[in-house]
What we know:
The chain is an alpha+beta fold and 371 residues long. Helix content is 23%, strand content 35%. It contains eight helices and 20 strands. The protein has helices at 63-71, 113-123, 128-141, 157-169, 187-204, 215-221, 239-244, 249-254, and strands at residues 25-34, 37-47, 52-56, 78-83, 86-87, 98-101, 175-179, 208-212, 224-229, 232-237, 259-269, 272-277, 280-285, 292-298, 303-306, 315-324, 329-335, 338-344, 356-361, 366-369. Helix 3 crosses helix 4. The longest helix is centred in the middle third of the chain and has 18 residues, at 187-204. It is globular, with a radius of gyration of 25 Å.
Amino acid sequence: MWQPYPARHYPLMSDPKTATKSSSVEFRSVVKRYGDVVAVDAVSFTIEPGTLVTLLGPSGCGKTTTLRLIAGLEIASAGQILISNRDVTSLSAAERDVSMVFQSYALFPHMTVLENVAYGPTVSGMGKQRAHELAREKMALLGLSDFEHRLPSELSGGQQQRVAVARALVLEPEVLLFDEPLSNLDAKLRRRVRDDIRELQRKLKLTVVYVTHDQQEALAVSDRIIVMSNAQIAQSGTPYELYEQPANLFVADFIGDANIVEGELLSLHSHRSRVRIGGIDVELPHRGLSPGPVKVAVRPEALHIAAYKPSRPALAGKINKAAYLGTHIEYTVATVLGELFVIERVLLRPHAVGADIWVTFGDHGTTLIPA
């Protein structure tokens, strides 16, 4: 259910660029226990004002509990939570200047769009006329001006999501929280709404904490991603850093698709290394590793298939599976390294299942995994 907030002053802004404020969020060794179960285990991070940070991870990793700890819907068992350098660890949701957009939207079905958006300021003591003015201002930002008299049941899923965002924005929070906001939308609409959320966040310079289990969604919208595993942070960084420089095996396997294969680091030279993978030597950043056996992450798009043996070093293989997906073909290829997942965007001459082929490594998309 939507969480009402205490009464406070709501200045009516005419310039949407000044209509919000953004704040930092900091966790200092935060722990959340439910009996003997540790849902969040000594987690520390800082979210800079005006950035969109995504908490990403599989079900049960602690990301949603972390979001609820920011919102005040859960109280930390240990550690400190600060918003704008103010200690809010023991404060309830009503005492924190945050708003949350829930996975289910939580719209009141008997209220119009305008009444839904104006609900927070109204129950906080603001006069109806002023609350409606403020609601209309936020609705205009989200392209909802023509829908103010409609009921939620008369809106599409994407429109309902925008109403939920407008209702959160009307409270002019320091921090805006999203809990799996696109999970109820179809694939095409998900892409459109995620772009809308990102554009709005940048336009208003909002501090946004966003929870999802969808790696592509996280890569598309985030300034920074915090990957969680088993109640702890596995890695934190930009989308580029997580995809190109995974800190460990879990992140390499979880962020996008990766073929995890065995290799041998043969020699080092400055920041580069010579690595042998299935009999082929490739040059890669050594990432602090020493000569010896290594794990290597190879992205599907880093591998290329040829029907005839090329002039450059290649692995012999056989097509085990092929799936046509319109923009690309996904292959499963048997090689000396085991089965490799390959994405090919050249669709003119697809390879048949059972065909003998050759696999080469591209110049991009292969990285060593630190121990």
